[in-house]
Amino acid sequence: MTEQEKPIYGIDAYLEWVKKEGLPVTEDYGVDLFEVPIADWPRYGCKGAAVHLKGRCDYSNMFLFEIAPGGSTILQKHLYEDVYYVLDGRGSTQVEFADGHKHTFEWGPKSLFAVPLNAKHRHFNGSGKTRARLVSTTDMPMVMNLFHNEQFVFENDFDFLERAGKEAYYTGEGDLITVRPGQHMWETNFVPDLASIELKAWGDRGAGGTNIMFVLADGSMHAHISEMPVGTYKKGHRHGPGYHVMCTTGHGYSLLWFEGDKEFLRIDWKHGVVFPPADRQFHQHFNTSKEPARYLATGVGGLRYPLTTAKRRSLMGLKPGEKGAVSTSMKEGGDQVEYEDQDPRIHRIWLEEMKKNGVTPKMEKFKVAQ
Q1: What is the pLDDT of residues 325-361, one digit of tens each?
Q2: Which phi and psi angles does 144 have, rounded to 5°?
Q3: What global pTM score does this model have?
Q4: Cβ within 8 Å of residue 260, ≥6 positions away
C-alpha cells in the first residue's frame, strides 16, 4: 500500500497546526505562566507558546505571547475567539474593522480584553526596556478541528461588525446587566484592572464571596472573576470541563477530587498560575493570604451564549428562575457541596495553612464540618 492509499483517520487538526507553527507546548494540571518555555512565533512576530491544561476538554486552549521591548505583533485576524489577560507589561492593542474604523486601547498588568471575532488586531509593547507577556484563552481547538482548513480560519473576510460594541467598550466602561446574584454581567470589550473592578455579592457560593460575569465582544467565550475575603474559602463544587482558573490577587490553594477519591489533588496558586478543574471534578478554593484573593476563570460557553445544555445547567439552570447548578446544593440536585457536608479534613488542612501564613480564620459563623 502506497502512502497515498493509506487510510486517513484520527487526525487532530488543531494539534497538527500547533506542530506546524513550531510552538512549544506545556501540558500539566497547574502551570506557572511566567515559567512556560517560549520560542519565536513567526506568524505573530513575537515569542509564544501553547498551554494545554490537563482536563481542559476538546474546545479550549491557551496561547502565551511575549512581546519584546518596543516590539509589536504582526497584524492578525481569525475565526476563533480569544480572551486576553495581561500577566505583566504595558502596551496597547489596535482593532480594525472591515468598514475602516479603528479602536485603540492601552492595557497594563491584570487587564482583561477580547478582540471581536475576525477583526484585524495588533498588540504593541509600550515599554522600550521591559517585555510584555499576555495569555489568551481561545476556542481554536474547536474551530480548527471543525473546519480543518488554516486558510479558512485565518483568511476569511466575513465581517462580524455587529460584535464591535460601543465606543465606550474600548475605554474601560461597560454596561452592568443585573440578573441575580452570581449572574450579574458586565458587558464590555476591555477591563483595565481586574484587581480593582467592583464585584457583586454572591452569597450562595459561601463566606461573603463576590463575583461578576463578563460578556466580552458579544462572544461565546466565558470569563468571570470571583473574590474570597481574607480568612475565608469557597464551597466545593463541580461542573463540566474547559475552565482555566488564574489567580489575580492574593495567594492560596485549591483542592481537586473526583467523587469516590480518597485523596485530594492540591494546587498552590499565586499570580500567574493557571489550573483546570476537569470534567465533573470537585474543586474548592482557599484564600491563605492577608488580602482578598481574586481569581479569573475563562473558557468556552458563557452566560449569554452557553453553547451546551450542560453549560446552561451549570451557569443558569434549565428553567426560568433557577439558580445555576454550581451554586445549588447537591441535596437539592445541584453540584455544590455545602460547608456542613464537606470532608472534615478540608477545614483542618486550611486551618494549618492559615497558621503557617499568620492569618486569622474567619469561618466561625459558618456551619463547617471539621
Answers
A1: 999 999 999 999 999 999 999 999 999 999 999 999 9
A2: -70, -35
A3: 0.95
A4: none
Residues 16, 22: Cα–Cα separation, whole Å = 10
The CATH number linked to 48 is 2.60.120.10
The residue with cell 480560519 is: 153
* Cα 363 to Cα 365: distance, rounded to the nearest angstrom: 6
Number of independent structural domains in the chain: 2
DSSP 172: T
Give the pLDDT of residue 329: 95
**Whole-angstrom Cα distance, residue 273 to residue 154?**
30
Same domain? 257 vs 130: no
Taking the C-alpha atoms of residue 323 and residue 327, their distance in angstroms, rounded to an integer, is 7
Instruction: Report the alpha-carbon distance of residue 65 to residue 147 in Å, rounded.
Output: 25
Give the CA distances from residue 327 to residues 88, 191, 252, 369, in Å, rounded to whole numbers and listed in that order: 33, 26, 21, 18
CA 325 to chain centre: 19
